[in-house]
Hints:
Layout: E1 3-8, H1 11-17, E2 24-34, E3 37-47, H2 56-62, H3 64-70, E4 77-86, H4 89-95, E5 102-112, E6 115-125
Antiparallel strand pairs: 1-2, 2-3, 3-6, 4-5, 5-6
Helix pairs in contact: 2-3
Amino acid sequence: MLSFSVEKADNITAEQLSITAGEKIFRILRLRSVDNTIYAVETSFIPLRICPSLMKKDIIEKGLYNSMRGLGVNPQRIIERFRAAALRSQEAKQMRLRAGQPIIHLERTTFDGSTIIEYCVSLVRGDFFIYTVEMKM
């Protein structure tokens, strides 16, 4: 975890979370890795009122969704949108890659019932990203 902070939601984040701009949110910035290879930079935004006692140490020890479940917030449904993009210089430094490399820009909205409990933006290395769809007819 690179950072865990409480901030005021800007207009774009507020819109994604269906809250009012200026409402307090958690902003959680994490690196994801496998075998010491960083494959993603992930930023989660969570309305503070959803789980005001959420703590950094719990997320580190149990993970985000398990920590939320422990506070009575139950992730039930996720919508993900993704597109190809190029890695920007700030994230390239965090991921130990060079700017301009191909990545997948992934946006995830997580719901408990009809309430949005998280909006997350992940930048995933293109060579780690695998997209699988199973369809039943």
